[in-house]
Amino acid sequence: MTTMALPNPVSLGLARGTVELRHFFRQKEAVVFTFAMPALLLTLLGSIFGGSYDGTGVTAGQVFAAGMIGSGIVSTSFVSMGTGVVFDREDGTLKRLRGAPVPPVAYFLGKIVLVAISSLAEVVLLLLVGTLLFGLKLPTTPEKWLTLGWVFVLGTTCCGLLGIAASALARSANGATALMNLLYVGFQFISGVFVTPITTLPTAMVDVASFFPVKWICQGLRSVFLPDSMASYEMAGTWELGKVALVLGAWCVAGLVLCRLTFRWTDAR
Fold first, then answer.
1. Mean of the pLDDT values across residues 124-139?
2. Is residue 5 part of a domain?
């Protein structure tokens, strides 16, 4: 008697990603909040805080736009991943998947597909808002496009992993939504997303933010979309791209370790 082999984990993960995307886009309220909130904040902040930076020709709206693209990536990776895992745990999805003849990696690959596509869509949306309303310019050199690529990949990866790890802190879906958004908003403030330039923030606050990914994601993206003259408005006076890569890479490793230590398939503690 022959047995039929199961599809490989990658195929199952891609199939699971299709399910995740379909489920996500059916939740109209969640979709509107996830995509519209960063765009709305960018529109409001960029319109309220006018003016330009001396000698650079860069407006406050353009600086907000560059930072909010990073903030949007955090929203679609950290917040969406954290709340999504808790919802799956609460409604029994994780328990059913755990009991099915499906490798666990397929579930996480499905989440990666969701985060990658939704994060890319968020970047495109914020770029449209930034270019149409505030004159944000697209990168003009291959080096800047490359920087955009690796900041995006490292940023979504580490924030997605940290979202999975943070899901272990929430006892319910409602609690997860509150917790993830509280952390999300708090890190935006201390990382200089809502306040420009970042040098106007208290040094101690920025020192705390420097331990976490949000500051470095936004700093890396400012280096992509703003001229090099704006580097003088960073805390170190340079873009510090090497440190951006180092910190985000370290958080990818740390996030993976935290996921292995904290992830739960059921509500049992």
1. 94
2. no
